[in-house]
Amino acid sequence: MFDLLPSRSGRILVGGHRGHSIEGHENTRPALLRAKELGASLCEIDLRMTRDGRLVVFHDDILDNASTGRGLISQMDYAGITGLKTKNRNGMAAGGQPIELFEDILAYSRDLGLGLIVEIKDKFEGTSYLEEVIRLLSQANMIERVLISSFDYVVLRDIKRLAPDIRTMGINYHRLVDPASTARSAAMDVMNTDYPQFMPDLAESLHAAGVCVSHYVPPPQHFALRRAYGFDYLDLLRSHMQAGLVDMLICDDVAWIVEFTKACGLSPARLPFAD
């Protein structure tokens, strides 16, 4: 298994959000490949389940906004999705890609030497959904290369009960009163806090509990206007990183986040199974 606390040795895991999604279609092979080429340690992808129980790699519950199809994925059989192509939300001229099965993306990522953060998006009852996720991870020999993530901390607790070797990541939009207790309650290995809620005390609390600290940041253009008004969050982030408070950075723009990491005097962590 790869080290989830690389900040102890001046390194940071660098992740692509839905792959290197800033230039092309998210959750696709080209987005994953480009992220790997640019230096990503791992990539985040999203899971949805079709009506006939197939897991596909797609963010939204509906097809309308990011594909050539229409409708709720949960109300469609996989056969109705196979001919569809992804559609770029940013309006960029990039060729559409197939909506892939989870097992195919697992095999592709394994062959690339790329770790994955697999976000479970659906709401469901019982454990059959999680059992299918575990089965496919085991079949692909990817359990040691994957983090299972969710905003639903009950999901993280339950999958850990079913498969204790799986490592999990809670996604957090808030400044928590007791981050370490929250992480322990769901048996999290990683907690990700999205911009702008990251604070040093949150990271210190998690590190004291042995929990990896992940931080999602928007692409650099998000910060440009704010910097012109006199607020530079990237200066704050640089100081947090140099203080060893961040183990993982996630961004849509892998090229930028890799260069930002290096400009902070830190090295993107290399995973043991990477080529």
Automatic annotation (TrEMBL):
Protein's organism: Rhizobium puerariae
Domain GP-PDE span(s) in chain numbering: 12-261
Pfam family of the protein (one): GDPD
Name by which UniProt lists this protein: Glycerophosphodiester phosphodiesterase
